Amino acid sequence: MLSTEIDFESLIQFRHFLHAHPSLSNDEQATANIITEKLRTYAPDILIENLGGCGVVAVFDSQRPGPVIALRCELDALPIIEENTFEYQSKQVGISHKCGHDGHMAILCGVAELLSKEKLSAGKVVLLFQPAEETGEGARRIMHDKRFLELRPDWIFAVHNYPQIPFGQVMVRSGTTTCGSFGLSVKLTGASSHAAYPDEAVSPQEALCELLSRLPLLAQTVPVSAVNLVSITHASLGVPSFGIVPGDAVIQAVFRSDVQETLDTFRRAASVLIKEVSHRFQLHAHVTEHDYFPVGTSMAEACELFLDAAKAEGLSTVRMPTPFRWSEDFSYYTKSFPGALAALGAGEICSPLHSPSYDFPDELLEVGVRLFDRLIKETIDRFR
To answer: Total domain count for the chain?
Structure first.
């Protein structure tokens, strides 16, 4: 248990405030300002703003030799209309915290409160509030910001709440932890016509239908692994009208695998398919790539630290046999620093991530703070 008491009721209210005031990726300045003001009340030794965009870092330094331990959370919300009607529902129309980043931020603020009351025995703790996780851009930018690199973390850790597994259960996997992924947006352009003269149009209708059916099949053409997926996420043909045969269409797909080389294979295969189909139907295809996430890995020793901390706190633990299917830009950090991403069970009755009815469980805040507190102490004791 925590050796120093912190005010979890106030932390819950702070999480509710964050939930009510969400910000989208790359537009998180308002959220960053809220976090910065909260962190100031805990008097960190260093407070850095505008890191990699809107990122914020608080450093608590013992002034004694020891490991530099970074803990990371995310600032951004999602473009999802919230269905919940509780009093702290999102005040931003069409934007809501449906991945639990409000809870992740509140957990790290709880750790900051703890560190302000109980001085570290050795080393430093770096609390990183990262922008633009949902689009895969934030961690990449942080890793190009010399102010973060100058902190030289020896270890970096993160948790992500995971609905529909037992509450408080800690799940880790050494090696490949999360899938890599990227999105392709394809705009097909031909020529429109009057609906009475469809023969005068160069319509993308048939090309769109073919790509809708053939792009997902690319998942069957790559080497077999735990996860190979191609998901269509959007498609449109022209604009709603009864008088126009449309001359343009858009299709978007996300490609996902737990093998980095497979992402490159997907990219090449999709390019060949799109060129072949658009050429056959006399269309121009403009292709753009979005939301790139490398395959994520966790170091075995970092996973053991998570497991030891969880067991010390009486939490159940699981070693995952296969990687998570979702992507996380935490993968950029573990390319350079020893670290691990763990899943923290949000309970079987919690709505799925990215669901309009999802809400981070308030009871998980104390579990998260306790877990990180123990993880810090385990790491210091082992590597001071």
So the answer is: 2
Closest CA to 112 of 332, 328, 376: 376
CA distance 112 to 246: 56
User: Does residue 282 share a domain with residue 314?
Assistant: no
Tell me the pLDDT tens digit for each residue of 157-190.
999 999 989 999 999 999 999 999 999 999 999 9
Residue with tokens 């910000």: 23
Going by their DSSP bridges, the two strands 68-74 and 124-130 should be labelled as parallel
* C-alpha to C-alpha distance for 295 and 62, rounded to whole angstroms: 34
Last-in-domain residue among 260, 293, 326: 293
Residue 203: pLDDT over 60: yes
**Domain extent for 272:** 180-293
Tell me which of 266, 293, 320 is where a domain ends.
293
DSSP string, 226-263: S-EEEEEEEEEES-S-SSEE--EEEEEEEEEESSHHHH
237 shares a domain with 168: no
Contacts 24+ apart (CB under 8 A), 262-267: 262/222, 262/223, 262/225, 262/228, 263/180, 263/181, 263/182, 263/295, 265/222, 265/223, 266/182, 266/218, 266/222, 266/230, 267/182
CA–CA separation, 375 vs 281, rounded Å?
58
CATH number at residue 152: 3.40.630.10
Residue 85 CB neighbour total at 10 angstroms: 6
Question: What's this model's pTM, rounded to 2 decimal places?
Answer: 0.95
